[in-house]
Amino acid sequence: MVAAIALIVAIGWRRSRRWWLVWLPVCVVVGLLGALAARLYVNSEGLASDPAPFYLWVWIGVFAAGVAVAVLGWRGSSWWRRGVAVLAIPLTLVAALLALNKWVGYYPSVQTAWGALTAGPLPNQIDAAELPGLRNTVQTTGKLVEVDIPADASGFKHRSEYVYLPPAWFAGPTPPRLPVIMMVAGEFNTPADWIRTGNAMPIIDGYAKAHGGQAPIFVFVDSGGSFNNDTECVNGPRGNAADHLTKDVRPYLAQQFGASDQAANWAVVGWSMGGTCAIDLTVMHPDLFSTFEDIAGDHGPTSGTKDQTISRLYGGDAAKWDEFDPRTAMMRHGPYQGVAGWFEDTVTPTNTASPYGGGGGHRPQSDAPTGFGGHDEFKDSDEAGAADDLCATAKTVGISCSVHRIISFHTWQFAERAFSDALPWLAAQIKTPGATDSPA
């Protein structure tokens, strides 16, 4: 409301006839072009699965129009109107960013946003140097440590990553050989996203508490190297992300924390782009991973259309597209033994007024709607039907899998719920001590 009022005041009422007939219409056109350009960019880059809500494009257009009003209306304006026009620019930008955040659910609270902005400490985070002093002690919660994993094998330039160690890791004189779950975030990401935004720590600690301190080790990896570098966890011009996760991260966990190095004890969990990474890493490397949870991933690594993907992710090498395509990889490798997967996807609530949707309940596949959240409006979206298609292919080559659906939208809140639902099954699949069999 403040942004809208500021922009109205900046436009003014006592203006020249030329302003009303020429310059204000130009500002409106600038706003429309700004909104259209943003929408075309999102579509061409394949940046989203659910079509954005209309109010996002409105606020982007209002922001672009506000910039035009400040620039084109500068001459002949009073000092106070100039000040209001300048003030309207950050206000409308914040409104647009709030609309974006409401769509994707990236920051569920001001506290979360402030923690990410200031890079404040994460829950139960300690310095790695403190770990020896905690050996052979009783811990009521797990501990999180920041690690700088050498990239000798991959050459992938990455940010610091995080390792969660459950209470059982500290209990004896030497670390037990615990199983590991690798956590991969979405396209625009930091390694801490699963922790800050996905609320993973309370979920994991809750599981550990219910199982006498026993839980897997978790590693929160960097699949991009920077916030907006969409690698899709493949090797290519954007970096050897696949090699980093398989040749750098995995050996490091075994060497530094005594984790198991057996494929049967490793799982990958991913959300959105990370969901694609989860199945891709597992079916391409069944000698390294045996279990995956694909949360709203695509049919395969995607960066726009197929031709755009081959160009952007593989430098024009079409053979690489086949190499990293999950269905092609499964058919080339099969049959598999001891590999299992959990797919989780959204079913849009009937009432689409809130982008966070209704968090509960499951709905049969036949009830899945189209339109907002059903992906038919986004011709470049590759998520539509991916869970069913991939699971169907997986079953033909001996991979045990199941498809689950939650009434929700494509947000971090959905990812949090999906991870919480699957964790008991994941822990049982990778043979976590104390885990009981949990049907998929």
UniProtKB/TrEMBL annotation:
Residues 352-380 are annotated as: Disordered. It is found in: Secreted. It holds the Pfam family Esterase. Keywords: Membrane, Secreted, Transmembrane, Transmembrane helix. The chain crosses the membrane at residues 20-42, 54-72, 84-104. GO terms for molecular function: acyltransferase activity, transferring groups other than amino-acyl groups. GO terms for cellular component: extracellular region. PANTHER family: DIACYLGLYCEROL ACYLTRANSFERASE_MYCOLYLTRANSFERASE AG85A, ENTEROCHELIN ESTERASE-RELATED. This is Esterase. It comes from Mycolicibacterium aromaticivorans JS19b1 = JCM 16368.
